[in-house]
TrEMBL record:
<feature type="domain" description="Ketopantoate reductase C-terminal">
    <location>
        <begin position="190"/>
        <end position="312"/>
    </location>
</feature>
<keyword id="KW-0521">NADP</keyword>
<protein>
    <recommendedName>
        <fullName>2-dehydropantoate 2-reductase</fullName>
        <ecNumber>1.1.1.169</ecNumber>
    </recommendedName>
</protein>
<keyword id="KW-0566">Pantothenate biosynthesis</keyword>
<dbReference type="InterPro" id="IPR051402">
    <property type="entry name" value="KPR-Related"/>
</dbReference>
<dbReference type="InterPro" id="IPR036291">
    <property type="entry name" value="NAD(P)-bd_dom_sf"/>
</dbReference>
<dbReference type="InterPro" id="IPR013752">
    <property type="entry name" value="KPA_reductase"/>
</dbReference>
<comment type="pathway">
    <text>Cofactor biosynthesis; (R)-pantothenate biosynthesis; (R)-pantoate from 3-methyl-2-oxobutanoate: step 2/2.</text>
</comment>
<dbReference type="InterPro" id="IPR008927">
    <property type="entry name" value="6-PGluconate_DH-like_C_sf"/>
</dbReference>
<dbReference type="Pfam" id="PF08546">
    <property type="entry name" value="ApbA_C"/>
</dbReference>
<dbReference type="InterPro" id="IPR003710">
    <property type="entry name" value="ApbA"/>
</dbReference>
<comment type="function">
    <text>Catalyzes the NADPH-dependent reduction of ketopantoate into pantoic acid.</text>
</comment>
<keyword id="KW-0560">Oxidoreductase</keyword>
<dbReference type="Pfam" id="PF02558">
    <property type="entry name" value="ApbA"/>
</dbReference>
<comment type="similarity">
    <text>Belongs to the ketopantoate reductase family.</text>
</comment>
<dbReference type="InterPro" id="IPR013328">
    <property type="entry name" value="6PGD_dom2"/>
</dbReference>
<feature type="domain" description="Ketopantoate reductase N-terminal">
    <location>
        <begin position="6"/>
        <end position="159"/>
    </location>
</feature>
């Protein structure tokens, strides 16, 4: 594989965790160039101290990126861009990326959401975009310092359905070499919706009650709310002809039980800490919109959406 430039855009929970692993491996192999883009104070700290990851997986918790940019406009000749931002920054990031990528650049979003690859495609129509989902419990402890708990993070990604014949095996090889747990599929759509049914339901209910993943399923009322949202997502997936197994709800409850009881969700943290922006639209907004388009009743999601809107105003 020729030397590639891998640009990590967004050095938060996800970009910091997966980017750390890429860079740590590359510090030894020196096969590629790994760059990070970060804003403001995070940029300054990364420049000064490098990137730190506090994780049971790594005893050596600091890595020095080859290049750190304070703005997307500074990125030069990237072969692969990992888009690791919250959904409310996605369109802004994509518009800026349009100015720095070539037609060969591959885009790999590492985000929650059911339609992220389509949203990227509406701004960057001709590049290869690899649909994906990620499982990891990591967050910004302090700017430039990422904390990771629980199981090793996992990336599931697939071929671009509009560029099926393009060879993107080098991306899978890079991920494998970096000791990242991953699956590479011909199509990742079922995986994306399997993650979406989980995180949309658990995220919304945990945000409403400020409860952890374990607590959502330990409390009967919360569990009922989560299952009602899962049912709505399953009906939408069926209408969109996205395969989810018939026992997906049972499987999703089991998946939740595999997380340490106290694991928070990112939506819970963002809403209950009074952060100005959060991913409520990514979860509830998307379900409600698809419901309207496909004539699926989404009254449970609409109810919790209104409750969370009110909660935001009162915080
Ligand atoms: N954290 C987790 O455990 C998991 C998160 N996810 C999903 O992954 C996605 C990313 O989440 P996460 O990493 O937690 O989010 P974070 O908020 O931790 O990190 C996002 C980072 O992107 C940065 N950013 C935004 N816009 C720009 C820009 N224009 N230039 C440079 N940097 C930018 C932000 O900078 P700044 O700090 O300056 O705002 C922030 O540091 C979300 O969709 C989330 O739902 C999925 C699974 C698990
Ligand atoms: C629940 C978790 C941590 C699982 O990856 C997640 O995706 C999120 O909080 O957004």
């Amino acid at each position: 594989m020729n030397k590639k430039h891998i640009a990590v855009v967004g050095t938060g929970g996800v970009g910091g965790y997966f980017g750390f692993k890429l860079n740590k491996t590359n510090e030894t192999t020196r096969r590629h160039k790994i760059s990070f883009t970060a804003r403001g104070e995070t940029y300054r700290i990364l420049k000064e101290n490098g990137l730190s990851l506090l994780s049971p997986e790594h005893s050596e918790n600091r890595t020095r990126p080859d290049e750190i940019y304070g703005e997307i406009a500074e990125i030069r000749n990237p072969h692969l861009v990992l888009i690791c931002v919250k959904e409310y920054d996605l369109e802004n990031v994509c518009r800026q990326l349009s100015g720095v990528i070539s037609e060969e650049t591959i885009l790999l979003p590492m985000m929650n959401g059911a339609d992220i690859h389509e949203r990227i495609r509406s701004i960057i129509p001709h590049n290869i975009i690899l649909p994906s989902c990620v499982y990891v419990a990591s967050h910004i402890k302090e700017k430039g310092i990422i904390e990771h708990h629980g199981k090793p993070g996992k990336l599931i990604f697939g071929k671009d359905p509009e560029h099926l014949s393009e060879d993107v095996d080098w991306v899978a090889e890079l991920i494998r070499e970096s000791n990242i747990d991953y699956e590479f599929r011909k199509s990742a759509l079922t995986d994306i919706w399997t993650k979406f049914i989980f995180i949309a339901s658990v995220g919304l209910v945990s945000a409403k009650h400020n409860s952890s993943i374990g607590a959502v399923f330990a409390e009967e009322h919360q569990k009922k709310e989560a299952i009602a949202i899962m049912r709505e997502v399953k009906l939408i997936a069926d209408k969109k002809q996205i395969y989810l197994p018939e026992d997906i709800i049972q499987k999703t409850v089991e998946k939740a039980a595999a997380f340490p009881f106290g694991t928070p969700t990112s939506l819970q943290i963002d809403i209950n800490s009074g952060k100005e922006e959060n991913e409520l639209e990514l979860f509830a907004g998307t379900i409600i919109r698809y419901g309207a388009e496909l004539q699926v009743d989404t009254s449970s999601t609409k109810k919790i959406y209104q409750q969370l809107k009110k909660k935001q105003l009162n915080i």
